[in-house]
Task: structure prediction
Amino acid sequence: MQEELKLLGLNDIDIKVYLALLRLGTSLASEIANKSQIPRASIYDILERLEQEGLVSYIVKDFKKYFSAAEPRTIVQTLEYRKNKIKDIIPQLEAIKNKEQGEISKTELYEGTRGMETIMYMILEEKEMFVMGASRRTPEVMPFFMDKWHKERIKRKIKVKIIYNDMPNIRESYKKAKTILETGKYWDAKFLNVKVSTPIMTIVFGDKVMLATWKKDKPSAILIKNKDIAETYKQYILSLWKIAKR
Result:
């Protein structure tokens, strides 16, 4: 629970005080200090900080301040508000970046499931994606995440052209996953004859190219951001699409 509360920007002491106040109910600063075992000299600064975060409020009775913890559900509302405010300024930030840097090339390395999730979320910002060298390893490496990701992809109507390695086990896996993938709707697949399963899967989305290895113990990917390179890979995949089979 403490790790989740840190997403609000709170430190360990802030969390300790907030949880103590939740347990106490409306209380004086001295009572909160005793419950949380925080020195009285520091408690007012912490309470003021929590008040600014919208997690604590107070009333004055008989010339004394009584503090109350905000309803826990407001935490979610606070996060949603912040997320929406950040979304509002993203176009401005991107405009500044593009103005300062112009069209640049960038290559980044992502490792582990967290790194792969980061790239997969990037894909959800585009309208379409093109894939080759697919071997149905992604659901094995990140099963729960990919189920959630596919639901979001379908919700956003992101179109996919994907070329699988044509091997019996891959065809069988694809056949079982058809319902999840919503094939024929936003997921169009073909198979390309290969002698061995290729270890690299290539995904093109927007001005980016992802070269991924889906090793179960440590998946990783190189992400290339370059408009010309992305377009070249896209056209290459489309040329293979013409000779691939259903």
